UniProtKB/TrEMBL annotation, chain A:
GO biological process, one term: positive regulation of amino acid transport
Segments crossing the lipid bilayer: 149-173
Key words of the record: Cell membrane, Glycoprotein, Membrane, Phosphoprotein, Signal, Transmembrane, Transmembrane helix
Annotated GO CC locations: extracellular exosome; plasma membrane
Mode of membrane association: Single-pass type I membrane protein
Subcellular location: Cell membrane
Protein name per the record: Collectrin-like domain-containing protein
Residues in the signal sequence: 1-18
Domain Collectrin-like stretches: 26-220
Top-rank lineage group of the source organism: Eukaryota
Organism expressing this protein natively: Oncorhynchus tshawytscha (Chinook salmon)
UniProtKB/TrEMBL annotation, chain B:
Keyword Transport included in the entry's annotation: yes
Protein source organism: Oncorhynchus tshawytscha (Chinook salmon)
Upper taxonomic lineage: Eukaryota, Metazoa, Chordata, Craniata, Vertebrata
GO terms, molecular function: metal ion binding; symporter activity
Protein name: Transporter
InterPro entries given in the database record: Na/ntran_symport (IPR000175), Neutral_aa_SLC6 (IPR002438), SNS_sf (IPR037272)
Localization per Swiss-Prot or TrEMBL: Membrane
Cellular compartments per GO CC: plasma membrane
KW Metal-binding (keyword) present: yes
UniProt membrane topology term: Multi-pass membrane protein
Binding site for Na(+): G30, A32, V33, N37, S259, N291, L408, S412
Amino acid sequence: MLVWILFLLCQVGAPALAQDLCQRDAPNGYKVRISLKTALGEDAYEWNQSEMFFFQATMAFAMRRHFQMETYNVDNIILCVQTSRVSFWFVVTSPDNTTMLIPKADVEKAVRMSRHRINNAFLLSDRTLEFLGIYPTLAAPVNPDTPPWLIVFGVVIGAVCVGIIALLISSLLQKRRKEKGMTEDGQDEEDMQVKGVENGINLDGTYNRGFTDDDRFTKL
Amino acid sequence: MPEEGMENSKGGEERPKWNNKAEYLLTCIGFAVGLGNVWRFPYLCQIYGGGAFLIPYLIALVFQGLPLLYLELAIGQRLRMGSIGVWNSISPYLGGVGVASMVVSLCVSLFYNTIVAWVLWYLFNSFQEPLPWSQCPLNHNNTGYVEECVESTPVNYFWYRKTLNITPNMETSGSLQWWMVVSLATAWSIVYICFIRGSRPSAVYVTATFPYLVLTIFLVRALTLPGSSEGLIYLFTPDVRPLSNPQVWLDAATQIFFSLSVAFGGLISFSSYNSQKNNCERDAVLVGVINSATSIYASIPIFAILGFKAHTNYVTCLNGNILALTNEFDISDMNITVENYEQWFDSLNGTHPSRVSDLNLKTCDLQTFLDQSASGTGLAFIVFTEAVISMPGSQVWAVLFFIMLFSLGLSSMFGNLEGVLTPLHDLKLVPKWMPNELFTGKTLICLVLFLVSLIFTLGSGNYWLEIFNSYVGSVPLLIIAFFEIIAVAYIYGIGRFSDDLEFMTGHRPNIFWKVCWLVISPLMLFVVLVAYVAVQAQTHPTYPAWNPDYVNFPDTEVLPYPDWVFAICVLLSSVPVIFIPLVAIYRLICCMSGRHSEDRLHNDPNPYANEGYVVES
């Protein structure tokens, strides 16, 4: 009979005890904030009791993963103060003693370790599944060995150098060709240079000495 | 490559010629259309009442810009020489005008190519995912983001720290930034390769037309972005109230003047390669109108994108507030949206005013975001790059934008260098022992200019560039243009000039041109010059410095110029201009010492007289 009364008391008392352990601003608890519509938009699922159970299971998994000795169960994760935001508080009790809470620091370590798995379980990210007080580690910057801009610069300057050298060589070749051409018909050049520059206009053709103006003034 | 023409201008030497008219026009348009059309005109439009700014702008174009442009193209075409030769021909006492043009072109080339180098740097960095100016880098122990970046914005940080590595003030020079030196070398190499062997004419087909293509692409893209219509409405809503402020008219006149790139000497050189029987009146009107039309056309996509950016900033600001309210009152996610924010805010503020005020919500006003305007490098490297991050496919848009800026800058550099190289060539200043065929003259000049412009790659380089921009690229040009127009209208004589124009175009200039050259343009130039100097003199010379240790960081700290810097400013403004009186005095002295006979020839470049005169070097 006594055992039966004790059992009844435990059944009634345990949730009440759990309620005392988990409350808003609990010293060893964390507030969780979930933004489903921001993360998933149209595909957002409804947050209901099953999802809460899933969360408990995920947290139990995280705790097990961190403290590899102890076997945490969904009962060890106590949730409270749910809002429609969706946000709630949770505390973690020890599997050996359900009245003892796991300290905040240990919970934090467990969450940090499995953060990626927890996020993926709910199709969320660090930003949309927030553990208030546990800051996400910043992504390590991608540091390529050669900065990309140097590669583009190398291509451009290579093309320009090739262009300059090509132009230099072609102009040298042209000059050499012109010099060769000049020496071959040097005779003609001399003739052309005699007349040429009247009034600054380079005349074409050879000078016809038949039309020299020695007869400018007509003889009377 | 310009063919060697059949007409000589002086003793036996042939002047290169344009391959066709299109090349000439494109080169002139490319020279006139530059970075200022894209990043200065839209800003002026915005702050001076949108569409109403077009009124002073077009008045300045018609009465000041076009006459000056026509004048320069005409004398270049008629006298067939670079700027120094031309002014020597008109009057040996005014040869200094040509020298001043050359010196200004030289100084402008220095800093203009540095801007091109900055554009290249951003272009090289646009080939990354994610764009380097979209996020803050981590600090050295990976615990958080770099403080300077967090306090300002990633875009500002990338510009001031990663690009310029700017020093807190002008006295600290810092060291040469190697990445900037590399970009500058690239810029000068590209300019060089376009200049040697006259491959420039083929390059202008691309550099002059490509910006229009990109602007059109941006226009189409921008119009599909949310918020673009607000930007356009903001730009084009005419507000005639600012027009009563004389500053507006001053800015319109200076904008037209600097935009057309007159008084650099480059336009004179370009038109000197024309045949004499070319209709330069039509060319001048065409170039002037296209330049202004480009400015107006460019402002449309710019403002559409700025509207998009303002909209994005507004939505981000609102979302920040929404998140704060949602978290504080545990309201269901996404119940408060941008649309119903006002109602939610009012109801929450009514029921829990203390909690709401504790949140320190920001006031988000679209108009405030639209009012954030910038011009110059601020527009291109800070505002626009920020807008590009929010556009899908950011890399493509960034690359397109910077290639457009690059070709705009490159085509203007052609004109700048032309204004330096042609007078030097005409003056035969290149020593005889240098083989001209191997273009060593051009190589040497490009090399020297590159080495001198390394100043701008120092830590304090941006401050120096602003000084060059404000003091070399402004007052000296106005003075030179004033002397140009006085020289042609009064010393050369409007009658003789009309004869020349009749010879070239086939008809005498009509009354409009004559009145402008004689009265309106010199008067406008004089008034603008005096007003500009007066405005500059009133404001104590200060500069905005980027100082992370400043109390109000990220606002820039306004510092006064140190005395030695101010002396340099004055020198920069006066050295080009001092050549005008110097050369006049020198000629006077030579004249008085009896070498008068040679000068008479120069005063008579009559088209019907013997053209076999030699420029006195």
